[in-house]
Amino acid sequence: MSYFAFLAEHGTTLLLGTVTTIKVLICSMILYVIISMIFGLMRLSKNLIIQGIATVYIEFFRGTSLLVQLFWVYYVLPFFGLSLEAFVAGVVALGMNFGAYGAEIVRGGILAVPKGQWEAAHALNFSPAKRIKRIIIPQIFPIILPPAANLTVELLKATALVALVTVVDLTFEAKQINSITWLSAQCFGTALLIYYIIARFALVPFLRWLEVLAARKVGRGKA
Amino acid sequence: MEMGFRWDFAYEILPNMLWATLNTIIAAGVGYAIALVVGLFFLLGQRTPSKIINGINREIVEFIRSTPLLIQLFFVYFVLPQFGITLSAWLCGMITIGLHFGTYLSEVYRGALEGVSKAQWEACRALNFSTTYTYRKIVLPQAFPIAIPGMGNYLVGIFKDTPLLSTIGVAELFHAATAVGGYNYRYLEPYTMVGIIFLILSIPAAMWVRKLERTVNVAQGKIKQ
Questions:
Q1: B44 C-beta neighbours (distance < 10 Å), count
Q2: Residue B49 included in any domain
Q3: Cβ–Cβ gap B160/A66 under 8 Å
């Protein structure tokens, strides 16, 4: 069977899987950004309990394997009476795992804002909430976006794992087609190419655009 | 089925799990050793004067880095037999992990080499040292400490990605947990134990890497003690 015949027969299935992969990617991206913001700030809290919770969370999720967490959420949580749909379980596990890595980036970003900015905001009598919201947060974006972009590409790659908890994404479809036709080179090769195209021509340009935008907002980079 | 964590069951499967942990550690170690060497080859491809080789090298690295390890595993495991090369699951897993993380390690090496200041090269040139001598006695001793934290991070990273090997049937920790769980229809204890074993092994490792990073930074005068 030629490659084009293969594409004609299984292309639609793979594309449908790709749509699910993108859905998983977008949902878990939103979740991980929120979690990293919250836990990144909590990590810097002066309250030892809040800081402790954040540290335990981050160490726990960075210390164990994503696959283990994913299976735990999908297969073990039902023991405690919490059954999640495969898609939700996948998004939750991805979001929580990457949120832990993201929190460290956010923490580093906040610490990298020059001390003078804090002092100036203090001197101008801004309230603590306003200091964070109006002075510090806008400045951390140019710092955290480059490492966050790397993390997001890692997230795209990690979405492949949700296939193992029966989410019908690109990887799942490729595996499925492989088990029916045994055209391994074609189906896994195509899947690899699709992931590469998503990363190289959609995700990375989008993240670069965000970086430029963030740099421009704080008056760095070209207008 | 009995609800809640059953300690007797956990105790019963503990020896089984610990043996599988040994396999996980071996897999991570071998995969890492391969990745260290593969990284050197990618570094070589990056630093050769030929523009064409540089370009090809960069595309290969980009491709491997932006596609999932899981599918790469499937690809190697299922496609090589079609070309008449039948490798065991172990070998496939080790090769794929080696290739995948080799691309990351080549970046670590590159960063470390670029971290050595240009003046060092110029001084060597002025002293008429040969390129080999410059690398061996001047550049590499300075680049190596810079590379250590990155290399340590990827050791921990590989360790945490070894559960993926279970998908092609390598009998490591996660594979053992799935097997035990399937046999007894109880996943709570096996998967929880896998998580705990990972924590026990990877948190000290990550702490050790962080300490190394600090030591290196102090030695280079980047931060004060």
A1: 13
A2: yes
A3: yes
